Request: fold
Amino acid sequence: MTNDPGSGSGDTEFRLRLSAEVRDWAADGVISAEQAESILRRYPVAPSDEAPAESSRTASGRPAAGSGRAADGSTIVGRAVSIIGVMGAVLVGLGIIIYVAANWDVIPVWARIAMLVAMTSGLNAAGWFLLTRLDYPRMGVAVLVVGALAFGAAIHLVAQIYHVPVNHPNLTTAWFLGVLPVAYLARSRVMVGLSLGLLAMAMGFRTQWWLQYYGEETLLFLAPMTLLTSAALCSLGVLQRRFAWTRPLSPYCYYPGLAAGVAAFGVMAVASIWVDVSSLVWTVVSIEYWITAGIAVAVVAVATAGLWRRFGDPDDERQRPIGHTIVVSTMLVAAALMWLWLTFPVPALWWLFTLAALGGVSAVAFVKQSALLLVCVASLLVLLTAIRFVSLVDLEGEAAPILLAAAAIMMAACVFAASVTSPSVPWLAQYARYGAASGLTLAALILHLMGYGSLWRWETPLEWSWMPVEYWAVVGLGWLLAGSAIGFVLWKRGRPGGGDSVWAAAAVVAMATLALAMWLGLAYQASSSWAAFNLALLAGIAALVWYAYVSRQMSVAYFAGFVFALSVVVRCFVALYILADGGLLLWLGPVVLAMGALVFVTARLRVRWADISKRDVRTNFRAWELTGMLLAIASIYAMSYSDPWAPRPDGNDRSAMTFLGEYWFLAGGVCAAALAVLVAIWVVDRMRLPSMPVPPGQSKWETSAAATMGILVVLAWLGLLLGWTWTWLPFNGALLCMVLGLVAAGYRWNRADLINLAVGVFAITLVTRYFEFGFGLLGQALAFIVAGVIMLVMGFGLEFLRRRMLRGVRPVGATA
Amino acid sequence: MTRAASVLFLAVVVAQVIGLITFAAVRQTAVTQGLEITLQTAPVDPRSLFQGDYAIVDYEIGELPARLRQQPAGAEVFVTLEQCGEVWCAADYTLAQPQSGEVYIRGVVSSRGRLDFGIGTYFVPEGMGNHIEWAQDVKVVISLGDQGRAVIKEVLVDGLSFQGGGA
Reply:
């Protein structure tokens, strides 16, 4: 039984909980004081991790005053210390690397090497001492990260002295091999992540020895290799879960492996559509490539076999690594099919390895009953089919966008139909909403695109022979799937939840008709079709709102509002983009700000009829308020830079903007809506109509926030129209005021989310402003180092603060 | 942390130190103990000269003779050298390793059809880049080991010396 306080978080949590429980048992007389003492001695808790909330109960059982807040504060500050410490370390490391790379020729060679060796070993030793002896685990890990980066710097600097090229494969390999053991000895998640990054870099450099030359077709050979490496990493990750020493680190090995595998598959699936590999010869890859592949396969085989040997309870079904086996076999099969495709580039093989890979993942989804996985598979399938269509359709043709749009709306109908069917499988039901929403959003965006008149004017008539058979085959298959899904839904009409099926069927039929309309519009060259699609979009949004009213689902109404808002912003963006080459995008700022204000006040109006004593209702409304505020702050931040406001040398006539009717119509509409809602709030409060009235302080806060946003919108437009180049200055002031206002409001009404938003905005602004300023003044390297040192000092400072907060609450002994 | 973990950590740090020192020592002996040879660089395209603060050079002896142009990328070619005035030039190109008495350098066919001897990059002190870029004549002094492997000792730009490793 190891007696050390491990740095794994699960272990510490257990000890904290145990010590709290033991104190309660002693207080209640379940065990004697001596027994409590001996238990606590057996499972000591490191003072750095002790949270006073658990130990603050007095003998009578009442929690000590103020301890809860100190405990929460301590955890938050603890996390902040880790983040700040590591960020500081990374910055210092980067700064050192950049600085020395440029400035080291003056010192004699032997002295340089001695300094490098001293720096590396010193940093590593210091980190280890901080971690183990001096009990500063977070700062210790941060210093070890600097040590790892310093080791890499040392290797590359010695290479530089002897003119060894920096892309020599053995350099990064040595770096990786030096960092990996430290990561596992310190059991630090950050360092494991760093090692995996170095592994990727090392493998990247080794490709010089794998591939005869770098070309589009040879680089595709890297995809199967990445898949094999990912399978090996996943296997190692799952194996690590079985050993207590490495268990906390196993996700940081497993998930990057998984991500790399998905990325490799994605790249191969897309690239193989575009790259011609017909002239490939197998001497393109070297022996080392095959040796590495063999090693990866061996690792997978050994690790998976090891997993199947009974670990733990042999009768426990859940311990059987079925899901994992499916995952790695899918990866191996996909890799093999990729090699096959690289030899015989037939389109059918592309469908084979795409469907095999996605089929494997679906199998895992069904084994683990993971709805999210199945949704990802479906989205990937849709995306890859879309990309394949783009390659099939001759993009030079004028009719191409309409053909693609028709296929896309068919895919949207499939997604929608599939999600409407899913409640019949219980563990999929939670995603039904999101699937339906994404299908409808896609359809709305397509209708939006089809509503542009310029798209429907073209010279040459459509020739149906343009489209290959594959296009019609996939389209037909899609219709079949959508139709059967809806048939299934209608069949279940009598059962619970079947009432909505008529609406669902109507939506799918509507999308079918629209796709048909697109094809017919093409065939008969109906150049005024665009008007119909605009009407269809508006009708769709209206239908959504009506459905929301009939079925009493607020979320559907919100969704309709979201689609509407998205359309407005996208329309403005397209209108501006068409008018100028993006130089007038600053005009988008006031629109987004007004949209933020509208979202915010709408949420506040609706709050007056919601029972916010219920937690989930409260969360819903806070999310809406935050979305509004985030939109507002983002636009204010974007408008606080001086560059976009500067007078343009090419003399884009600002008065031209006054003639852009569509922009003013939409922007004016949003502002008018926001104003109307604000007036409605005022009226409702005066007439005492709401069922849940808000306190007067809050209503003042709402009005002042909305008024500020309104003033800023007007200021922005005046600045744009009259050419005031100093307009960015008050926006900086506004940003500061909003941050302060958010903090004040958060403290006043106990809203942690407002404070988090304020601190987040402040931190991002500070960091970006520092780097813009620092790079100019200090030079790149010094800016990094100074920033890193500041953060390390802040880290130490926060850690002291945290310890002080913990010591302020008196821990209670184990005796009753 | 257990005592075993601390001991292992110490071992890793020592391994890192030994690794660094060995790396430096191996290159240092290659620089001081090899045969000193001066090679003429081929004219370099000034636009592709720099990546960061190191320069890429081609050598005159890197040009493959007609009979060996068909060699695939990655193939080994040995170039026997003889003295031609103040520089050394290529006497013969062979695929087999020459006898140990001969002066030869080992090269690998690169993807561009020339030979890469592993001495194609050298690091330049910051700010010195322009001198190299505008240079008329660049010669590289290398230290040739007995297996045909070379390291850069010194770089002569229009007669001016830029120090290499192993001061």
Summary: Chain A touches chain B through 42 residues (CB under 8 Å). The CA atoms of residues 46 and 165 of chain A lie 47 Å apart. The radius of gyration of chain A is 31 Å.
